[in-house]
């Protein structure tokens, strides 16, 4: 199959996939805190926000157990279309439909019968999260199946990150205009409404599913002697495969710190524009700036890897991000300075993500070399699990931060107290900065699977398997 077609198809899937992820991990909580519970009873609103937030975090925490199992199920899938594509098509459809469902008040139950709403919401969210996990793991665990060569993998990873950057940052550009457009169109009200958020979710759900279909149709798994060295894995073996891959585990610990820091800050950006600056109508500029710099960052990644080791790239990116945080803390309401800080904070992220993605992908062969059998989806399930886990904790942080800072419902910038603003900055700036420092220290000291070491492992595997 033509490589360019495969690159474009994989990028299209990443575009829809990350648009979905951004909507679920970031903008759903904004819908919950700003629209879903906006009654005159502030105590009731805060209580329900707390319950929904707690349920989301709890459900995602349970995924620590089930995501590797889902990876094992995907690894054990045997169909004429391969092991990934059926999950993209089936799980992609179900998760997209349920995304739309959670952006409703369940026919008024959220306020009329809150306990019934919480029960139904829990059922829907568990189902949504389960099928999203199947799609997520199937999509990203395709990467080592598309090529054994690190250089080709970097190209697939780069175009995928290019697509996901456009998807994620594209949502930042269109979220406020789309919600306002649909609110005005369907209700005639010139402000955000639940109806506007519902139709925004419909648009994202459709885009996400179309991307999954394009990936399923336009990509092809590579068949070779190394990939044939697989066997079905049982429930207990799933956790052994993950636990005994020390490079995978150290990279996972480093990445969860980094991902949590990024997602928390990114999730609170709209709150900053809305409740601190009073400039939510300017939020689209963040999407435009980050989309442009994201494309630039992804485009230069292959060049960077020719001259710099991944470890150096990861460390340098973290330094730039921390400098962006420092600038952001003193930016106040100055829009140009805020946008400069956002640029410094975001620019390294796609590059650092690709470093992590390539290391985790290479740990498939490392695990095969160390354990004797190949487990693609079980290994690659770890990265999506960590992103969802970071998203879950971020949802909890955002919900809690919004309540303690007074940034809920129809609150205005003038309603935010000095103490509330200070607490908000603790969650948005100080905590994430500490997490990034810890992430870099772990990566620098414990992750030893370099590009050179991976090439040696692949050569040794090929020689070992040819002798059998």
Secondary-structure topology with pairs:
Elements: H1 3-36, H2 42-76, H3 85-102, H4 109-112, H5 114-140, H6 143-146, H7 150-187, H8 194-218, H9 235-243, H10 246-276, H11 284-307, H12 310-329, H13 335-346, H14 348-371, H15 376-380, H16 382-405, H17 418-446, H18 451-466
Helix pairs in contact: 1-7, 1-8, 1-10, 1-16, 2-5, 2-9, 2-16, 3-5, 3-8, 5-16, 7-8, 7-11, 7-14, 10-14, 10-16, 10-17, 11-13, 11-14, 12-13, 12-14, 12-17, 14-18, 16-17
Structural features:
468 residues; mainly alpha; 18 helices; globular
**What percentage of the residues does DSSP assign to strands (E)?**
under 5%
What level of helicity do the residues show? over 70%
Low-confidence stretches: none
Largest sheet: none
Q: Structural class per helix/strand content?
A: mainly alpha
What's the order of the H and E elements?
A: HHHHHHHHHHHHHHHHHH
Number of helical regions: 18
Shape: globular
Radius of gyration: 22 Å
Global mean pLDDT:
85
Count of extended strands: 0
Q: What separation lies between the terminal Cα atoms?
A: 30 Å
């Amino acid at each position: 199959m033509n490589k360019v077609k495969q690159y474009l198809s994989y990028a299209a899937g990443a575009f829809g996939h990350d648009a979905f992820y951004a909507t679920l991990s970031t903008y759903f909580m904004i819908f919950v805190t700003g629209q879903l519970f906006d009654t005159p009873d502030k105590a009731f609103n805060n209580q329900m926000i707390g319950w929904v937030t707690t349920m989301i975090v709890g459900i995602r925490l349970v995924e620590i157990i089930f995501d590797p199992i889902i990876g094992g199920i995907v690894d054990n899938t045997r169909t004429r279309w391969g092991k990934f594509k059926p999950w993209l098509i089936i799980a992609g459809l179900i998760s997209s439909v349920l995304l739309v469902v959670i952006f409703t008040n369940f026919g008024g139950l959220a306020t009329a019968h809150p306990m019934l709403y919480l029960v139904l919401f829990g059922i829907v969210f568990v189902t949504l999260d389960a099928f999203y996990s199947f799609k997520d793991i199937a999509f990203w665990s395709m990467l080592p199946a598309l090529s054994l060569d690190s250089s080709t993998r970097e190209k697939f990873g780069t175009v995928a990150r290019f697509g996901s950057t456009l998807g994620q940052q594209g949502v930042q550009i269109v979220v406020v205009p789309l919600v306002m457009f649909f609110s005005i169109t369907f209700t005639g009200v010139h402000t955000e409404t639940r109806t506007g958020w519902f139709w925004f979710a419909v648009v994202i759900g459709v885009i996400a599913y179309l991307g999954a279909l394009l990936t399923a149709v336009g990509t092809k798994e590579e068949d070779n002697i190394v990939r044939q060295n697989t066997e079905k894995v049982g429930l207990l073996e799933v956790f052994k495969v993950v636990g005994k891959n020390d490079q995978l585990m150290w990279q996972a610990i480093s990445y969860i710190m980094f991902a949590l820091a990024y997602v928390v800050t990114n999730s609170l950006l709209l709150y900053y524009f809305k409740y601190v600056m009073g400039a939510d109508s300017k939020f689209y500029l963040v999407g435009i700036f980050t989309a442009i710099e994201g494309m630039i960052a992804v485009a230069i990644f292959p060049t960077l890897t020719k001259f710099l080791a991944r470890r150096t790239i990861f460390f340098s990116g973290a330094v730039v991000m921390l400098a962006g945080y420092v600038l952001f803390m003193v930016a106040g309401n100055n829009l140009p300075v805020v946008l400069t800080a956002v640029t410094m904070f975001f620019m390294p992220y796609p590059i650092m993500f690709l470093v992590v993605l390539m290391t985790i992908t290479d740990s498939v062969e490392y695990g095969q070399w160390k354990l004797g059998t190949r487990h693609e989806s079980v290994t690659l399930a770890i990265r999506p699990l960590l992103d969802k886990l970071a998203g879950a904790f971020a949802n909890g942080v955002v919900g809690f931060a919004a309540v303690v800072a007074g940034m809920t419902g129809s609150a205005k910038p003038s309603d935010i107290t000095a103490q509330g603003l200070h607490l908000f900055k603790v969650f948005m700036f100080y905590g994430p900065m500490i997490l990034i420092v810890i992430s870099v220290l772990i990566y620098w000291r414990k992750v030893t699977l370099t590009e050179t070491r991976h090439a040696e492992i692949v050569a040794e595997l090929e020689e070992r398997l040819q002798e059998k």
